[in-house]
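so im writing up the methods section and need the Thiamine pyrophosphate-dependent dehydrogenase E1 component subunit alpha record in one place, dumping it here so i stop losing it
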Amino acid sequence: MPPELHKQLFFSMLRIRLVEEKIVELYPQQEMRCPIHLSIGQEAIASGVCATLYPTDAVFSNHRAHGHYLAAGGNLKAFLAEMYGKATGCCQGKGGSMHLIDLDAGFMGSAPIVGGTIPVAVGAALGAVMQGLNKVVVVFFGEATTEEGVFHESANFAALKNLPVVFVCENNLYSVYTGMSERQPLGREVYALAKSHNIPSFQGDGNDVAQVHQMTTEAVQRARSGGGPTFLEFKTYRWREHCGPNYDNDLGYRTEAEFQEWKVRCPIQRTQAQLLEQGILTAQDLDEMIGVISSEVEEAVSFAKSSPFPDPQILFQHIYA
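--- predicted struct ---
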């Protein structure tokens, strides 16, 4: 990987981490009234995938969407304003954490319904083909989505129509509080499900941003050149509770030992160590990055807090019956 690109990917991951850690700090103030699903620990996937895309491509996401939105180039001020339910938010304060959108960045939207954006993404890919657009569509989802019928229907259709869509599965091992062994047969890998639909399917280390970027680059090139869909499964781990800013290892569905094992694999610390060792990143560079991001975050928080709440009259705008 070119050194400058590796450094840019590190900056992207660090930015996502610092933004979400700021949310962790502010959430107890009870001013953000929406549920939040943090992606701390999973930043390499969002950064590695989105760095392969053109501005004209399209990204769809799920309930754990912060990292995808930011890596795709979503507006930070609009993002935090949405957390606060303000009129300047990317959904005018009506959506909150799980409903993010930034059309200027090609971020077409996120939704909390498991698997809900997959058929929409496949439809967008079909639309791009029908319009003759050189567009690739990426859709992020968790491994539990592969247990939904809509995933298989969408994968079958994408394969049948040879659509330019990249399915990105973030396998963090748990669906809320339920592990893989209680949801899927032992010994079966998630990417094998997509392979059964005759879709090129691959599995990678979701905490290795260079590997994520390389695998996604190949998938995006395949889609853009008419080679059809690809399924990428990236194994990773969420550090925080399923929904909220805290830790939940005390609940018993996973162990503290397991968490510590995955924490050692932190994608940011891992990449930082590599870049420092190779001389691509210096301690001064790191300090400057943290300073730049921290200033940007503080400015965005101030913007969000000072923004007005939406007028109640807009409640029934942009809806369909």
